[in-house]
Amino acid sequence: QVQLVESGGGVVQPGRSLRLSCAASGFTFSNYGLHWVRQAPGKGLEWVAVISYDGNNKWYADSVQGRFSISRDNSKNTLYLQMSSLRPEDTALYYCARDDSVWTGYPSNIFDYWGQGTLVTVSS
Amino acid sequence: DIQMTQSPSSLSASVGDRVTITCRASQGISNSLAWFQQKPGKAPKSLIYAASSLQSGVPSKFSGSGSGTDFTLTISSLQPEDFATYYCQQYNSYPLTFGQGTKLQIK
């Protein structure tokens, strides 16, 4: 079955960096686009970024553009989110989610499976 | 950015009821609309895409409709496991945006 397992969260000071990972199993990882979505404590969902199946196309939310970078290693079945210049407002549970499109440089942006999330807390 | 507005923000209903949640987009999004269910402490679960298509494994008690700017999610014959928060999301254009959520509570 499809599994997405996030890791790498923790407590970090404002201005510092952190890298999140999402390990995938149960499907052919290299065929699918992938997203990061976050949820601040007690708040709603906010889309963060998406990467195409081959890593060639990426899109970001304005709130993270220039600070966060999404990438993937298809040989390791792992998605990443490199976060820099972190701010207190980046504090959230970060989910990875699979895009349901296959082999397309332009994701459908339809989420079908979600991980359980990893918590990032930005605080001094 | 496209703003998504859900109503109501919270809703109380009884087991066996049928409920409808509304989602309105600030501009036309064709049928590029998805619905998610989230229970406390859990990840969201995808329910519906393309406004009315059920994700695999989602029971037919969930149904969606709409196009353009106005959409609805209807849940029939509510069961205890259906009480959760529901979110709509547009994927017509970047940035992808979600509604603020509708919390469905037991009356």
Could you describe the 3D structure shown?
The complex is a heterodimer of chains A (124) and B (107). With 124 residues, chain A is mainly β. Helix content of chain A is 0%, strand content 53%. Chain A has no helices and eleven strands. Chain B is mainly β. Chain B is built from no helices and eleven strands. Chain B has strands spanning 4-7, 10-13, 19-25, 33-38, 45-49, 53-54, 62-67, 70-75, 85-90, 97-98, 102-106. The A-B interface holds A 35, 37, 44-47, 50, 59-62, 95, 100, 108-117 and B 1, 32, 34, 36, 38, 42-46, 49-50, 55-56, 87, 89, 91, 94-101.
List the helices and strands and how they pair.
The complex is a heterodimer of chains A (124) and B (107).
Chain A: E1 3-7, E2 10-12, E3 18-25, E4 32-39, E5 45-51, E6 58-60, E7 68-73, E8 78-83, E9 92-102, E10 111-114, E11 118-122
Parallel strand pairs in A: 2-11
Antiparallel strand pairs in A: 1-3, 3-8, 4-5, 4-9, 5-6, 7-8, 9-10, 9-11
Chain B: E1 4-7, E2 10-13, E3 19-25, E4 33-38, E5 45-49, E6 53-54, E7 62-67, E8 70-75, E9 85-90, E10 97-98, E11 102-106
Parallel strand pairs in B: 2-11
Antiparallel strand pairs in B: 1-3, 3-8, 4-5, 4-9, 5-6, 7-8, 9-10, 9-11
> What ranges of chain A have pLDDT less than 50 throughout 5 or more consecutive residues?
none
Quickly count the helices of chain A. Answer: 0
CA-based shape of chain A: globular
- Beta strands of chain A, count: 11
Q: Identify the most extensive interface between protein chains.
A: A-B, 23 and 25 residues
Order of helices and strands of chain A: EEEEEEEEEEE
Tally of DSSP β-strands of chain B? 11
Query: What class would the helix/strand composition of chain B place it in?
Result: mainly beta
Unreliable spans of chain B are: none
Radius of gyration of chain A: 14 Å
Largest sheet of chain A: 7 strands, mixed
Percent of residues of chain B in beta strands?
over 45%
Mean pLDDT of chain B comes to 97
Mean pLDDT of chain A: 97
Q: Which structural category fits the helices and strands of chain A?
A: mainly beta
What kind of sheet is the major sheet of chain B?
A: 7 strands, mixed
* Continuous helix count of chain B: 0
What percent of the residues of chain B sit in helical stretches (DSSP H or I)? under 10%
